[in-house]
Amino acid sequence: MVLAGDTLFLAGQPVDATAIAAGNATGKAVLMSLSASDGRKVATCLLTSMPVFDGLAAAGGRLYMSTCDGKVASLVGR
Predict the structure, then answer these.
(1) 34-68, pLDDT tens digit by residue?
(2) Where exactly are the structural domains of the chain?
(3) What residues form DSSP beta bridges with 65?
(4) HSE of 12 in the Cβ direction (CA atoms, 13 Å)?
């Protein structure tokens, strides 16, 4: 999780307590952005690999993400 300006970025496996309790967690990873002021979902995208723990960083108008497959993605804001 990283806060960049007024946007909160979250990456990882979505948590659905009902699915986890039933043993049906999907293992799919997502990157989600939320408005820091009101929690509104701004965007969501599926990831091809899980992010590493604490693998998000923001600098210079970019979001950087390290993934478990050994890659580093550089994403540019709007």
Answers:
(1) 999 999 999 988 888 889 999 999 998 899 999 99
(2) 2-76
(3) 56, 73
(4) 12
Phi, psi of 64 (to 5 degrees): -110, 140
Instruction: Let me know: does 65 contact 75? Beta carbons within 8 Å.
Output: yes
Residue 51, phi-psi category: left (phi > 0), alpha (psi -120 to 50), beta (remainder): beta
Contact by Cβ (8 Å): 13, 25: yes
Which architecture does CATH list for 2-76? Beta Barrel (2.40)
Other CB atoms within 10 Å distance of the CB of residue 31: 19
From residue 19, how far is each of 7, 14, 25 by CA, in Å?
28, 10, 5
